[in-house]
Amino acid sequence: MDLDSGAGLLHRLTSYVPDREWDVPVDDPRVRHDLVPNDPGTRPPQLKAYPDGLPVVTLPRDLPDPGVPATAVLAGVESPARPLDAAQLGRVLFLGAGVVRMTERDGRRHFYRAAGSAGARFPLEVYASTRGVAGVPDGVHWYDAAAHALVQIGPAATGAATTLVLTGVPWRTGWRYAERGFRHMYWDAGTLLSQLSAAADSAGLAPRLRTDFPDATLRDLVGADGVHEHPLALLTFGAGEPAIGPTGPATTGTLPPVEFPLVTTAQRAGERTVLGEPWPRAAALPDHPPSDSLDEVVLRRGSQRLMDRSRTLPRAALEWSMTAALRGVEIPHWVAVHGVDDVPPGLYRWPDLATPLRAGNLRAELERICLDQSLAADAAFVVIAATPASTLDDRGYRTAQLTAGLVEGRLHLAAYALGAGASGMTFLDSEIPALVGESDDLATLLFTCVGVPEYASRAGGRPGAPVEVRQITPRIAGA
Ligand SMILES: Cc1cc2nc3c(=O)[nH]c(=O)nc-3n(C[C@H](O)[C@H](O)[C@H](O)COP(=O)(O)O)c2cc1C
Fold it and tell me: Which domain of life is it from (predicted)?
């Protein structure tokens, strides 16, 4: 990856360093200096808007829970196939992108979706290009998460198999994180896909993930303009040819016209013109611990804001959740262990827990590296995804970020299935090569904190009935 152009340049210019606050742009004309982060006056809407009058399918609000343990799904155990009808499609969409919680402050509602999103910015949209789904006409539909409904925005595509298309809206996350929001779109696509795939797997729908696809075709299919909205990934139900060939124009909908030129360039640098193979299905694990159903675990999941550093997690929880989260994943991972029974504190290169790269208490160092966020010190263990930049091209960079998000999402589900808590975590890029003993070529992707929760979040609500929650503020060192 060339650090002077495309995704490499974006990575370099959006890297956090200790001597510059995270919300201060780097001194380079290629990033925007004219935007005020978190400005209430420019806050983007949480959802895309479409004109009235488009055909709408209201999805059933009773979700057909197949009752499969979350741990069985994460372990890759195959579930009996259920028909893909409106209710099942709605369940899959809801367990990834549905509105499960909300806060209300100053008369303004903020929605929280089923899958986590860095800074709760939720910059993604999901479209379903349907084929033969009982109760849903063949066509291209936008998932209206607030209404739990499908809005038809385009005619039926060519191709045989119903396919979900994930897109990202840079401004929705860039409003707070500026150009670094490019990374966030892919992280969040990963967490969302971890839940969409798990929901589909638990209904035996054989989801197939593709991260290589013809970008222009997908933009045309869903009406994304390639500046304010970008296609990120495809998830197809079954082995058929994905239904992604546009047969007519899509209604484009409305998004605020704010562009980050560096993001547009990074995205374009990785464009492809042909459809790639789906990710291979990884082998199932030989065993899995008992747990509640996936649907229950997804609704219970939230990002744990406070972890109890005086309590530890069992070694089996670390080993099983890492093994399950990394099924089929080749990106290197490290684990900083703070409080795990029978694993001495220190830094480990997964899967080797026998020989620490560094032994000792790393809580203070992790807290500093995670911008003084105490979750990184209070967690029982912190998982670090990173890969050599020189092994990536512009497309590979996108896929690496998405993969790290997918692992974060699976770690999250595993934690909540096993009674632990988790949170995604950002970091000072410049500090990680020294932490893990690698060269400066290492591109750090994402951190995940897993630990003992200090409180239990209220379970999320059902479609159309998000539960109202109070925001809990995480601890910041020295604050
Ligand atoms: C990729 C990713 C990165 C995150 N980074 C941080 C972080 O640096 N600090 C933090 O406190 N929470 C972090 N979070 C947690 C989000 O703030 C949280 O997911 C969001 O507020 C939505 O809340 P929920 O997960 O409880 O639904 C991150 C989440 C994700 C998915």
Answer: Bacteria
